[in-house]
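Input for the complex:
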Amino acid sequence: MLLDGAREAIAGAVGARTDEVDLAPSHTAGLHTAVRTVARGRRRVGRDVVVSAVERSAVLAAAEFAAAQPWSPTPGTRVRVGVDRSGRVDLDAFRSAVATPGVGLAALQHANGEVGTLQPVDEAHEAARRAGVPLLVDAGASLGHAPLPDAWDVLAADPGDWGGPAGVAVLVTRAGVRRAPDGPDDEDRWFPGGVAVPAALSAAVALQHALATRAAADADRRALVDRIRSRVSAEVPDVEVAGDPAHRLPHVVTFSCLYVDGEALVTELDRLGFAVGSGSACTSSSLEPSHVLAAMGVLTHGNVRLALPRDVRADDVESFLDVLPGAVARVRATLGVDGL
Amino acid sequence: VIRAARVARTAAPGTVVTVLSTDPAARHDVPAWARMRGHELVEVADGPDGLVTVVVRILAPA
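Predicted:
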């Protein structure tokens, strides 16, 4: 009963029915299950899985797994659609990919968590709908930060991103989307064993709070990210600020510095009292360059990602921007790259 | 990228520089560097044992 209350509250927040909401033990598990069960449910209609090149690693991996059709003798293909320099999916290519016969499932994130760019989800969903292909929208980086589109058939979201607890995540599947479990039978068909009740309740309450206060948090942080984008571009030589400058998440900004080792810059900024991220936030255990930055064609080295918390102080942002040019210059000086 | 930039600084316009690297990031970062510096990307090729070859034509005066 308590779990149903949490599901009802989450359903209300995302514009769905309570029975369309499932609770997963993690965002990764939610994405994996979404891709696997929908691909299996639709295996007689289509075997290919279409994804953007900048999806979260969990989506890319699940799409590769599901397109191999482990439950059937004939494999399909994972079709990756490229993005432009801002990280926005090539919409014409995406439309054409989903309209190709034999597609079981398509996935397009709402926003990219690494660079903040919002994807053209409405247009992609329209193309998928016309082709009769369900669209999985990963809102893991956006729900709680940016208004959610209605244009999805399966929606995955991550309470960790709206101030909720770890150990629970949200998967919403519109009635009418065919899916089939690919594991043993359980009382919870989609996430065997279910999730912790306190985590689910706290995720639901945190989501309601995040949405109620979103507008104010959005405006404040959006202005600060604009400030960061302009000061970094103006004051740090040989830097590229990544992602769409306007059509983006309010709180994420990423930039790459030429001739800089990202880890050295992280260490230097840490010494100055600032904790920042470098490289890919979604595949942090991997030494491979970020697949998002690589797909965009921007520098994968010398990368810094900032995610502003809701209680960020403008003074702290200004202090960071004051010390950044010197920190970059010191890292470059140790590499002897002046004048290159 | 830094070694390519050192070569490019003293190279005459039109010089073709071939970068060989075992770092998988080179296939992304050498082209990105060339774009930021106004050089022309000629070719990116994968070789055996993860060796990446990136060919760049130096266009802008250093």
